[in-house]
Design a protein that fits this description.
With 173 residues, this protein is of the alpha+beta class. The protein folds into two domains: 12-35 and 46-77; 93-172, ACT domain (Alpha-Beta Plaits, 2-Layer Sandwich), CATH 3.30.70. 50% of the residues lie in helices and 23% in strands. The strands form two sheets. Strands 3-4-6-5 form a four-stranded antiparallel beta sheet, covered by helices on one side. It has a two-stranded antiparallel ribbon with strand order 1-2. The chain is elongated and about 95 Å long.
């Protein structure tokens, strides 16, 4: 061993031995994470064969993951990017039903912001001059369901469509 400024430095033989021990430990760890190797005819499996099996195993798992993610997007009805899926799942869905002499608003909203959207719906209805009869909501899973029943000041034909248009415009603005 050589000395440099009072420090001892291991020789090349020791460095190489430590490197081989470290690589052997890494190979063992990798192979322990894989399923048992397939038995080959003619004896022992070489390290190169095991590494090729590891590579093929990892590639197979990556392909399976991609297929499963594609299948999940198909089943959830969205083929867009993650941000498009998140935006689509959070956009409120509003339906206005004509009940004569009043209307009912049913809003399906993400529970994260359902209080804000509910307040906006009430604000728009108040600006229309309606009398709210009942208002209720329930949170189920990743959705909040709001039901608001009210008397419209005038209940003409197409009133439900007009109210729905104003609500959607106010909420999506």
């Amino acid at each position: 061993m050589e000395t440099s400024h009072g420090l001892t430095r291991p020789d090349r033989k020791t460095i190489e031995k430590n490197r081989r021990i470290h690589m052997k430990a890494l190979y063992s760890k990798l192979l322990s994470l894989l399923p048992t190797p397939s038995s080959q005819e003619g004896g022992a499996v070489t390290l190169a064969d095991r590494l090729n099996e590891a590579i093929n195993y990892i590639k197979g798992k990556q392909e399976m993951l991609e297929r499963m993610q594609k299948r999940k997007r198909q089943l959830t009805g969205s083929a867009g990017t993650a941000s498009e899926v998140a935006t689509a799942s959070r956009s409120p869905k509003i339906d206005v039903q004509d009940l004569r002499p009043g209307l009912r608003v049913i809003a399906v909203i993400s529970p994260c912001d359902h209080h804000l959207i509910f307040c906006e719906i009430v604000r728009v209805l108040g600006a229309e001059g309606v009398d709210i009869i009942t208002a209720s909501y329930a949170v189920v899973g990743d959705r909040a369901f709001h039901t608001i029943q009210f008397l419209a000041p005038k209940s003409g034909t197409g009133e439900a469509d007009q109210v729905m248009g104003r609500l959607k415009k106010a909420i999506h603005a």
